Amino acid sequence: MAGTAGTPGTPRVLRAMNDRAALDLLLAHGPLSRTRIGKLTGLSKPTASQLLARLEAAGLVLATGTTRGRPGPGAQLYEVNPAAGHAAGLDVTPERVLAAVADLTGRTVGTHEVPTPGRRGVGAVVGQVTEALDGAVKAAGLARDDVRRLVVATPGAFDPTTGRLRYASHLPGWHSPTLLDELAAALPMPVEYENDVNLVAVAEQRLGAARGHEDFVLLWNEGGLGAALVLGGRLHRGWTGGAGEVGFLPVPGAPLVRQVTRANSGGYQELAGSQALPELARGLGVTGIPPGPYAETAAALVARAAAEDDGPLRELLGVYATRLATGLASLVSVLDPELVVLSGACLTAGGEALRGLVQAELEELAASRPKLVVGEVTERPVLRGALESALAATRDEVFDTSR
Fold first, then answer.
1. Is 171 helix (H, G, I), strand (E, B) or coil?
2. Residue 93 falls in which region: left (phi positive, over 0), alpha (psi -120 to 50) or beta
3. Is the whole-model pTM more than 0.85?
4. What pairs with residue 99 in β-bridges?
5. Is 60 exceeded by the pLDDT of residue 4?
6. 240 vs 158: CA distance, rounded Å
7. First vs last Cα of the chain: how many Å apart?
8. d(Cα 323, Cα 280) in Å, to the nearest integer?
9. Rounded-to-integer distance, Cα 68 and Cα 64, Å
10. DSSP letter assigned to residue 32
């Protein structure tokens, strides 16, 4: 009996699979000729020609110039139509909401930042989100309805059973039980909410140091200390979304912190968080400590220390590495990951010098021996991860030619 149009193996489904394979190749490689697409997909020239004609008619690919450097006429090149779909990401901190819109190829086409000091309450939060998104949409020359999906990055995580934000008491206005419903009513597109450090891991897996890795831990140290856990290729969020909130981890070398959610801190945060570094530096006799927010001061100190071969700054880097490895030892002992990615300004500022010291310390403190690498996505990594997450879902929708 002949299969129905939606049954795997039928012409419609096979065409859609070939279409998606070709579109993914164009995203990965940039402009390609019909012959090259045929070779990469294993399709015959006539089939590849039909595929490209179909995708061009659907507005998913554009003809974009010809090949050069060979005798005879150049071959027509094709690329993904950037305007076939747009997605947006928001990076939310206590100080500001930063929004960006990307086209289907991943290129950022508009950004907008809304400062949020002292603005609290559900209405203020909804206003901040819509103002930031609308600013980015306007900068991109688009309308709000052109955005197919939005991913919002926040510290902590929204509990899937209650819909309330947890593990982020320092984010004013975001803890109302009605917030997600009110944001859904104010925004026309599907919205997803994800922990900020989890989205940095998405960015590193798609674009950076974790490409090709299915099991890794990303350790983040900037304003706060946190981790993302990717197991079997998937983010592990935990029952309430709190997996990876390692700042709360009790560790040797730090007093036992009780009522951790009220304090919004824990042993590992107190030992190795950015707020600990200026005090540690002063205790070691480091001078010229720059004023300013903890994260910026700490990153500047780590960058200076990484450039030194000896003296108080180099000693600072060694103590910091030991403190980082103390918490990491617990993580790798439980998870046994293939890879650990060091990310966030306080870690990437240390570069290879800090990475090598943490690796050496970890090999003495833990039985498993994961490879440590420095994160490669250093420009707005949280926002980049939000865009990558939103784009993945948008491409699944836009590229599905079986519908």
1. coil
2. beta
3. yes
4. 90, 112
5. no
6. 8
7. 23
8. 11
9. 13
10. E
CA distance 136 to 131: 9
| pLDDT tens string 138-192 | 999 999 999 999 999 999 999 988 999 999 888 888 999 999 999 999 999 999 9
Phi, psi of 32 (to 5 degrees): -135, 155
The two structure tokens encoding residue 5: 């149009």
Count of C-beta atoms within a 10 Å radius of residue 282: 13
Q: Residue holding tokens 């350790």?
A: 219
pLDDT in tens, 42-53: 999 899 999 999
Dig out the tokens for 339 from the structure: 């890879």
Query: Locate tokens 């997909």: which residue?
Result: 41
Q: How far apart are CA 123 and CA 351, in angstroms?
A: 42
Q: Which two tokens stand for residue 351?
A: 């570069």
Residues contacting 239, CB < 8 A, separation 6+: none
Number of C-beta neighbours around residue 89 at 10 A: 31
Residue with tokens 């440590």: 372
User: Which helix H or strand E contains 269, and what residues bound it?
Assistant: helix 267-272
- Tens of pLDDT, residue by residue over 322-360, are 999 999 999 999 999 999 999 999 999 999 999 999 999
Q: What is the DSSP string of 341-361?
A: EEESHHHHTTHHHHHHHHHHH
